[in-house]
Amino acid sequence: MKLSPLQTARYEYAPKLPGMLRNGIADICVNEGAETQSVADQEKIAALFPNTYGKKEIIFAKGQNTSAPKTHKVGVILSGGQAPGGHNVVCGLYDALKATNPENELYGFKGGPSGLIEDDYIIMTDEYIDQFRNTGGFDIIGSGRTKLETNEQFAIAAEVCKKHGITAIVIIGGDDSNTNAAILAEYMAANNTGVQVIGCPKTIDGDLKNEDIECSFGFDTATKTYSEIIGNIERDANSAKKYWHFIKVMGRSASHVALECALETQPNICLISEEVAAKKMSLSAIADYIADAVAKRAAKGMNFGVAIIPEGVVEFVPEFSVLIAEINELLAGAKADAFNALPTWADKYAFIEAGLTKESMEVFAILPQAIQQQLFLERDPHGNVQVSLIESEKLFSALVADKLAARKAAGTYNGKFGALHHFLGYEGRCAFPSNFDSDYCYSLGYNAFMLIQYGYTGYLSKISNLSEPANEWVAGGMPITKMMNIERRHGEDKPVIKKALVELDGAPFKYFEAHREEWAENTCFVYPGAIQYYGPTEVCDITTVTLALEQGKMK
Fold first, then answer.
1. Does domain 21-218+433-489 have CATH number 3.40.50.450?
2. Catalytic pick from 95, 175, 176, 205?
3. What is the pLDDT of residues 77-126, one digit of tens each?
4. Does the active-site annotation cover 205?
5. Which of 349, 285, 352 is nearest to 313 (CA)?
């Protein structure tokens, strides 16, 4: 296989570990902190996790290793969507295993959690794992979205582990995957299987974080990758001076990715879904907000600009959420077959008009036809609208165009408005990880083995103090149950890790809020350029603006 020069060079990069993990496995001791409780619904969570709830937070430190010597066979699973750095979690775990005892083995289960159920695995070797060091993607073993959540699945997993002598499983995933890791850990403990379960916090969306998990891995690289592209588009807009670029960015429900990209590039507009919900903004109000910026810039002769649209924003528009709920009900059960059998869009439109309330029909009617039709395309497994498939960047540019046409007719706007559209998503999920993500992920994997060695289960690998140089990072672990609350899912109460949305009173949003009016009217674009891997530390190892603001390292 032919390698690029960068790929060859990245294989040789030595990821930086926290200071207390650098001197060898034999010189690491554990300091236990206070017992924990869940973020909410303490009694319900405690009842569901009697064997793993309320455990203590721990921090690793320099000192004599007091763990019991034993040979370890560990399984590792990549779960959910890809995120840059996942390979280095596996590499860090492997290196820690082998540094402790060359006889230790790492089983990589293929294709996500289903690999464990199907007993489909590879035993990692130096030769194999060296091909993936510091590279993007999850192709080392592949990933998948099978959920481990039933007792039948757990029993099969326990049997597979018993068959191979595996005594620990590391699940690398997001909030849902780590929720399932906690449930699996409880099952393994309750049934005395001897199998530990450790989680690692992954997601480019940035919504798996709290007072303990400062950021999920992959967020740094993905937002830097998107910001490079946004900066390039800004430079083009400022050169051509004739287009408004509407750029949707991945991020599921939360707006962390959009906000970080805005902080890095200073576009004219960035919608924040959580603010839209808090202010109960309508589609019309959002369109007016964007149109105001377009008009102000046009009055200065600047008929161009950049608007960042978070992936899940339409879910946060109250009237749109009601519309989605009514559509889901309208197409429930056999009614979906009747709708799909209608021969023309005109027939389907009449069906929709008869089934929606007057208020929701008014919202539906203002949508461009292409967006209307997207609402009735492929459904999720539960029969609901897949909101992430809605081209919201095109929706808002069309609504803005209508607003501007009305203003032009009224004589209050005389500019030119041409829109171009972009969606930044998959471009960032498998990018070459930044030095930060390379270091962070390697540390998470290395640290996961330390948790295994000391006998912990139901814990999340935790690396903190991340805005400081890696030597000052702090390694430890926290019980996954500490992050949990009860939510209603598909008609049942379920224990889940609480998603972290953008906090409107947090430092990152407050900084954005203080500057966005200036950015909207003037051209304040910042061009971040490509991720740098070699050179000055302040360029190569820089953290996200979000993390710097949250930890008071930027004013």
1. yes
2. 205
3. 999 999 999 999 999 999 999 999 999 999 999 999 999 999 999 999 99
4. yes
5. 285
